[in-house]
Amino acid sequence: MATESIYSSSYPQNLTPEQQEHLVSTAKEWSIVNGLAVRSPIAHSDKDPKANYAVTVPVTLFPSLFPRNCFREALAIQTAYNELYAAIASNEEWLGQAVEE
Prior knowledge:
By secondary structure, the protein is mainly alpha-helical. The chain is 49% helix and 6% strand. It has a two-stranded antiparallel ribbon with strand order 1-2.
């Protein structure tokens, strides 16, 4: 008996070379425009010490699949998590002591 996958069988979809080039180009452009970049080691080379090159940080074009039931569980606890996070972040005295330890 075959088990049915919880994932779509067509993921990630097959792209034509043109679609892939467009997707990669768009992701790189978005990364640069939105500050998702780092200074390249080339910028500190002896060849051109005044050079200032930036490259995009690694991103994935097709994120790893995440089971829907796990996502729903995460949504169910999100409000409680937010409240806990806010309570911890707003208690500066306790947070300071915790960091010192």
